[in-house]
Write a structure and sequence with these properties.
Layout (H helix, E strand, L loop, with lengths): L1 H16 L3 H14 L5 H13 L5 H16 L11 H10 L4 E4 L4 H9 L10 E5 L9 H11 L7 E4 L2 H9 L3 E5 L19 E2 L10
Parallel strand pairs: 1-2, 3-4, 4-5
Helix pairs in contact: 1-3, 1-4, 2-3, 2-4, 4-6, 7-8
The structure holds the ligand CSCCC(=O)C(=O)COP(=O)(O)O.
The site of the ligand CSCCC(=O)C(=O)COP(=O)(O)O has 10 residues, from helix 4 and helix 6.
Length: 211
């Protein structure tokens, strides 16, 4: 729902805001990636193609965040969140654990998402936010940088993801990992050459953390 909304709104958003410095910066980054000077029409088509591929490009993610802002503000939608997530986050935070978000979505988009979730405003639960400005989610260096920024040894950090390659990168950096296995939405490899040994949970309720 969020991605189709951004895809449909992109042409109008670029036409209305494409000359604003903070928007132009990201449109120019797309043009550079595209390999040549190109029209805004081509930039929009490129971005829509990236949405179709679920590409995690920092420029796309920054622009999506700006587009979603209007949708949240005008109450056109709330951010979809699995029913087991908010109760677990509240319990973990209540027991004193600091919680952080690391997403390919831009930090402004993350704050909008958790601020307008189906379960209400969850932003007070989080102690910090990280996006791909720190590095890609499949690169171990990103997790090393996050641990350094948080000031907690990587071995004390549990990283949750539904993507095995992200968990591999976090583990290389020394973090503990759990695959949040949302089988119906994001099936992950289980057997054969792609097998892995990250602990699995099908719900946040099954993730037991030290108090
Ligand atoms: C949380 S803001 C929007 C999410 C988003 O744009 C995205 O690509 C999700 O990436 P993630 O790394 O959180 O799986």
């Amino acid at each position: 729902m969020l991605f189709p909304y951004a895809r449909n709104a992109l042409p109008g958003f670029v036409a209305r805001h494409g000359k604003e410095e903070e928007v132009r910066r990201w449109l120019d980054a797309v043009a550079i990636e595209h390999g040549s000077i190109c029209s805004d029409e081509v930039i929009v088509e490129t971005l829509q193609g990236w949405i179709d591929q679920d590409r995690k490009h920092t420029a796309l993610k920054a622009l999506q965040g700006m587009i979603w802002e209007a949708g949240y503000r005008d109450a056109e939608f709330t951010a979809p969140i699995y029913a087991d997530v908010a109760p677990a986050l509240r319990q973990w935070r209540g027991s004193g654990l600091p919680l952080y978000v690391y997403s390919s979505g831009s930090v402004p988009a993350q704050k909008l998402f958790f601020g307008h979730s189906d379960a209400g405003d969850l932003t007070p639960l989080f102690s910090g936010w990280f996006d791909t400005e720190v590095g890609g989610k499949r690169e171990a260096g990103s997790y090393e940088a996050i641990a350094a920024r948080i000031g907690i040894d990587a071995s004390e950090i549990l990283f949750l993801s539904d993507v095995v390659e992200e968990l591999d990168a976090a583990r290389i950096a020394g973090m503990q990992t759990v695959l949040v296995d949302r089988r119906e939405d994001y099936p992950q490899p289980r057997d054969g050459a792609a097998a892995h040994d990250h602990p699995r949970a099908t719900s946040f309720a099954d993730i037991l953390l030290p108090a």
